[in-house]
Write a structure and sequence with these properties.
Radius of gyration: 24 Å
CATH topology of the largest domain: Rossmann fold
CATH superfamily of the largest domain: NAD(P)-binding Rossmann-like Domain
Shape: elongated
Strand content: 5-15%
Number of helices: 15
Order of helices and strands: HEHEHHEEHEHEEHEHHHHHEHEHEHEE
Distance between the termini: 41 Å
Strand order of the largest sheet: 3-2-1-4-5-6-7-8
Number of strands: 13
Helix content: 25-40%
CATH class of the largest domain: Alpha Beta
Structural class: alpha/beta
Length: 453
Amino acid sequence: MSDESPPIPASPTQSTPEADRLIARFASRQATVGVVGLGYVGLPLVRAMHDAGHRVIGFDIDESKIHLLKQGQAYLKHLGDDLVSELASSDRFLPTSRPGDLAGCDAIVLCVPTPLGDHHEPDLSYVVRSTEMVAGILQKGMLVSLESTSYPGTAREVCQPLLEAGGLRTGRDFYLVFSPEREDPGRKDMETRQIPRLVGGVDGVSTLVGVAFYASAVDQVVAVESAEVAESAKLLENIYRAVNIALVNELKPVLADMGIDIWSVIRAASTKPFGFQPFYPGPGLGGHCIPIDPYYLAWKAREAGHVTRFIELAGEINSLMPRYVVDRVAGGLNQHAKPVKGSRVLVLGIAYKPDVDDIRETPAAEIITQLQARGAIVTYHDPLVPRFPSMRSYTLDLASIVLTPETLAHADCILIVTNHGGVDYAMVSEHASLIVDTRNAMAAYPGPNVVKA
């Protein structure tokens, strides 16, 4: 018997003539699609909808993105130059920062950030502002889809009242769904079109319209019973990863003190063909999903009178990993009779994952901050991030240095935070006196100068 559950069917719903007209426009690829937010989620969606044959209007408040798109210049390197050059030369794509340009759209998709506040509470300011903007140009027969990850009830409790403030009604005059993004920046083996898409509406007619919309550009669309089911499913996907990463992160120092390599243990356990999926430890969590999304459900759970102990414990463990890494640096330097204060630490990789230029929530920021607080002289090399950008909680005035035998030999410690594929680890092994490796990047080059963290 398979462990896999079948797709959840949506409740049977009678469509309406207005909805049928919109569904027909999606099916014939004659629709105009507006995408609000042209970042790591919005831009791949633009490509999928444009490739399907729709006319696409890309909206962003960042004028620099609009300028680069018009010039055919990439600002998300992992998506490649061909995407933006193709869009720039197309008469079916309009990049804009003017809300009025979205007024004639058949569908508007919100792909905006959902960060956390200072106390791990949801920050829906981007969702609210973008929804208010859409409410100002909302017309009959329009579909609005929220893709930004949030707590269950956001589409119904936050977006729907804002959109209905002008008198139009959901399910009758316009349609509202939640369809969670499932992008994985840097993944080469799968495009947006190939990733199964969940769609849940705030009513049955909205679900039918939303399914038709995404089916026009995505290979597999799964209708679920409600927007809340879709919202919860996305949170479960990321909480599952956060909890399992926390598990191996917790095991890492325990096994290290026993003289056991966590990477060898995971490799051994992975030989089991069922009941086990490998997760890997690291220097902390990064990206816009796993470090943030679990707290959205934890916050909503407290509102409902529940404590999500697994979620909060996983967050606590993962957030402590930068301190563990810094302690391992201190321990490695101590073995070389050097204090952290005054030591030259060269960080390899500041992006949150390999082979992308994405630094959102990167643990490198906290690691560098803690090293500097202990008096270390920190530099970094990242072939994809030439300068450390300003972040919500960090301002690090650093630029990437060239990686040479001389820069490696000059450093007291090489700290591998992100294992980019373009780095010459053989050269690192040959010229570094001390390497603290958080990613098992030096597995092919073991030696007494390598400390795992």
